[in-house]
Write a structure and sequence with these properties.
It comes from Sorghum bicolor (Sorghum). This is Ubiquitin-like protease family profile domain-containing protein. The protein contains four helices and two strands; from the N terminus they run βαβααα. About 5% of the residues are buried. It has a two-stranded parallel ribbon. Strand 1, helix 1 and strand 2 (about 55-60) form a beta-alpha-beta unit. By secondary structure, it is mostly helical.
């Protein structure tokens, strides 16, 4: 049986922890909620397996790109998650550019160059040309 692991990659700056408490306690309630939602989704998919994410081993990979909470662009969570999913190889996470414009541009380029883009034929030809150039970069 394969060991089940939850890898917690938090882009926010490390929160100070009270003396005597583990840093992982910050994530306990969040992990519990994710576990409940995961089980709900598995139930809707009629899966016969019973997973308990809450009891899985937890890892906190190092070198996760951090963002400052007090900047105007701190709400990049979705773009960072997208990059985490795209670049994570199961062992390491390369450094991710946390500049708002770069993340949004890369996301748009990925959508435009996606083979699943149903509207590709509706995109003007000059934009199609540029997206093909981006795809080949």
């Amino acid at each position: 049986m394969q060991n089940k692991i939850v890898r917690i990659m938090d882009p926010l700056q490390d929160q100070p922890c009270m003396k005597g408490y583990s840093q992982s306690m910050v994530y306990e309630s969040m992990l519990h909620n994710i576990g409940r939602m995961f089980n709900l989704a598995m139930g809707l998919s009629k899966s016969k397996r019973n997973y308990s994410i809450y009891s899985w081993k937890r890892e906190y990979p190092a070198y996760v790109t951090k963002v400052q909470v007090n900047t105007t662009d701190w709400n990049l969570g979705g773009f960072l998650v997208y990059n985490f999913m795209k670049l994570w190889d199961g062992v390491t996470l390369p450094s991710i550019n946390n500049q708002s414009t770069s993340l949004r541009t890369e996301f748009l380029a990925d959508i435009l160059t996606s083979r699943g883009n149903e509207s590709y034929d509706n995109i003007p030809e000059d934009i199609q040309y540029l997206s093909k150039k981006l795809e080949n970069m």
